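S1.2 Input.
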Amino acid sequence: MSENSIWPEHEQTQELVRAVATGDVAARNSLLERHRAALRKLVHFRLDRRIAGRVDASDVVQDVLLEANRRLQDYLAQPQIPFHLWLRQLAQDRMIDLHRRHHAQRRTVDREQPLQQRFGDRSSLDLAAQLPDQELTPAAASIRKELEQRFLEALDQLPEIDREIIVMRHVEHLGNSEVAVALELSEAAAGMRYLRAIRRLKSVLTDKDVE
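S1.3 Output.
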C-alpha cells in the first residue's frame, strides 16, 4: 500500500483484525473507527451529485460501518482479501444501491459529477504530478504543470474502466496488487490495464489518437 493511500496502515489493521478474531470488543470498535475518515473521502468523491443533495455522506459512511460490523464475523471466517478492500467493496455496494433507488442510470456512481467538484478542497490534487514522466510526451508533461484543470477534464472524458483504474491508483493510492484484487484481475492484467488507461489519458491531453 502506498504511503499516500487514503486507507490506514495495513499492518496495524491486520493486528486489529487478529485481535477482533479473538473476541476483543475494543479492537473491533477501533478497527471500524480507524477507517471512518477513509470511507468519508471515498464516499464524498464517488457519491453522485444528484444523490448528494438528498443524502449526507456521513450517513452513508455510518450505514457502511454498521453493515461491516454486522458482517464482520463472516469476513473473519474467510478473509480472502485485505480488510480495507472488503470495506471498500461494502461502500461501493451501498452507493450503487443508493444510486439505483434514486432512479439514476445503472453505471458507476461517480460518472455524472465532474471531477473538479468531487475533489473538494484538494486544490493541488497531485494527480497529474504523480503520473510517471515516461508515460507522457513532452507536450503532456507541460500541460501537467500548467493546466491541471485540463487534466481533470481529460480524465472525465475517459471510458469508465480507464477512469476507474486511474482514480484507484492516483486518488485512493492503491498499489497495483490491491487494484488487481479489487478488480479480480491478475497483477499483470491490472498493470496492463493501467498503462492503457494512461496512454488514453495522454491521447486526450495531447489531442492524439492512441491505438
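S1.4 Remarks. The chain has two domains: 10-101, 119-206.
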